[in-house]
Amino acid sequence: MHPHRLQQLVGSVPDTADADQRSRLLAHVQASDRCRVRVERVTAELERALDGVATRTGRWTSPGSWTASSGSSSGWTGA
Fold this sequence. Notes:
By secondary structure, this protein is mainly alpha-helical. It has a domain of about 45 residues. It is built from 2 helices and 2 strands, in the order H-H-E-E. The chain has a two-stranded antiparallel sheet with strand order 1-2. The relative contact order is 0.08.
C-alpha cells in the first residue's frame, strides 16, 4: 500500500481506539511497510536478473515493448 494512503487510513482511526486496537493497527502498518519494501527489493532484483539475460543473449525486450502477435503461441512477441 502506498505510504501516503496508509497514513490517511491511520489518521482516520478514531481517538476512542484503545491501546490494544492501536497496537494491532501499528503491527499492520509495520507489516504493510515491510511488504512494500520487500516488493521494491524483489522487483529491483528481477529487473537486474532480466537485464543480465538481455546482456548475455541480446534478445530481451522490456515487457513495455511487447506487442500482440497471432503467430506466437503465447500471443505476445517482443517488438
